[in-house]
Amino acid sequence: MTSTAIDPQALDEAAHWLMCLSEGEASEAEQAAWAAWRTSSVERERAWQRAELLLGKLGGLPPALAMSALDRPADPRRRAAIARLALMLAAVPAAWAGWKVSDEQAWMADYRSALGECRELSLADGTRVFLNTDSAIDVRYDAQQRFIRLLRGEILVHTAIDRQQPPRPLRVGTREGRMQALGTRFCVREQGGRTYLAVLEGAIRIEPANARPGAAQVVRAGEKTDFDAHSSRAPQAVDASISAWTQGMLLADRMRLEDFAAELARYRRGFIRCDPQIADLRVSGAFPLSDSQRSLNMLVATYPVVVKAHLNGYWLLLTTA
């Protein structure tokens, strides 16, 4: 995707269509109009590609803009929201370089998983690593350490005893810092500039990349935390079902519907959005990650939720009947 400037008018129109489609109420005629608009010029197609890039990186419209999208079309707040969104689209190239580097690193990684795939690896020392959907790691073993760098996504690590003498520590690194395993099984996920750690067995010592000296924290079995490059949060209790994805399942225990939609969306192409009016609906059950349509059918059969599909199923809205 080129980073050269795009006509502001095309970006404004792309922002308008994002608002319309995110509402989930676009008629067949409106969807046809969107398709005709998109293909009517190279500049409009470029604007829409940039809109899709922004949505993919942000995981959807920012809440403040999404709420404005629900107002009447003539509402001045909606017009202001579209203007703010158009400005965001214009600013995408400033951050594109960093995203592009990250994507290229993941593409050239030692091990990767495809969208919707859960992959199991056995490393040279017997350590087992599970890669969740759309994840990538590099592995570097030398005389001093066993090092796994999480480039994207989520992994579960089950450490093996190192037979080399003296035993080498096993460490996992992300952009936010490093974690050293103390004989353990643990999950690491990187998202939105934070690293999320859940310890299922043993313990982990975490060191944020830019933390002050002596700021390392030990997280023990049954605990979870998250951290950025400067500091970490106090540990909290973790639910053992956090690793259910290794068995191809999403276990929901009174999970907010909005969070459920975001989690399921990680395993399929396109977008799943939730009507803010039912975002706090609590969902429970065991849902298969390899078949998102089956999971959605189970949801609809159990809860007062309907799924409205747009753009041939690329854009789904969870809403009420």
Automatic annotation (TrEMBL):
Keyword Kinase: yes
Source organism (scientific name): Pseudomonas vranovensis
Occurrences of domain FecR protein (ranges): 110-205
Cited Gene3D superfamilies: 2.60.120.1440
Protein name as catalogued: Histidine kinase
UniProt-listed InterPro entries: FecR (IPR006860), FecR_N (IPR032623), Ferrdict_sens_TM (IPR012373)
Keywords from the named record: Kinase, Transferase
PANTHER family: PERIPLASMIC SIGNAL SENSOR AND SIGMA FACTOR ACTIVATOR FECR-RELATED (PTHR30273), PROTEIN FECR (PTHR30273:SF2)
GO molecular function: kinase activity; sigma factor antagonist activity
Keyword Oxidoreductase included in the entry's annotation: no
Residues covered by the FecR N-terminal domain: 12-53
